[in-house]
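>> received
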Amino acid sequence: MEPLLRIKNIEKYYGNKSSLTKALDDISFTVDKGEFVAIMGASGSGKTTLLNCISTIDKVTAGNIYLEDIDITTLKGKELNRFRRDKLGFIFQDFNLLDTLTGYENIALALSIKGAPVSEIDEKVKYVAEELGVTDVLEKYPYQMSGGQKQRIASARAIITNPSLILADEPTGALDSKSSKLLLERIKFLNEELSATIMMVTHDSFTASYSKRVLFLRDGKIFHEIIRGNDNRKQFFDKIIDVVTLLGGDVSDAL
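>> returned
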């Protein structure tokens, strides 16, 4: 299978000659279409920097990132904006919903920006809302929703344009345990039933156990990788904990 995402020898430096920090150190890996990959690592390991480079929020110092054979490290201006709009979906820890828009309008916004006809927008919003279990809050504003409902609205917004890659940054970080589990089941549904390709940064082993592959970062490098294979989620969780322990992390805060 041809990889959807190819990361080739990327490096990222911050600072200047007198105080230089290497956040990413010659990282290479691929992600196939339909994969669900989690990125774990201690604070300062480079996991958020990696996600920011893939999402085009930040630029690499060296190396290349290819999505569907497009070298995103070379994109600029309108071309870069078009790429973000058409190819990427985002799920953030703090939801990033617009307070003045209803749940329906927040989800529909991405399609409206693309100039989709009203009939298509309505059909897609209702379908995605039903799949993510948020039909009952479509007419509510974010301040009227629970944290879990806001995050599922944000997830619906991320998937509505059928992006090539969904990037999730600590998606359960602001949720209680019940809401986290509900959201993770929905993200798993997006991956398994709607064939969404997902890359998720998380510090939490329970959250990572819903993925199919986990990459562990340490000091800006890929330290280890585990693949779920035929393991059930509990077995995969135990393997993740074993690596966390090997890395010297405290299981209670799980990297």
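>> Confidence is low (pLDDT under 50) at residues 250-255.
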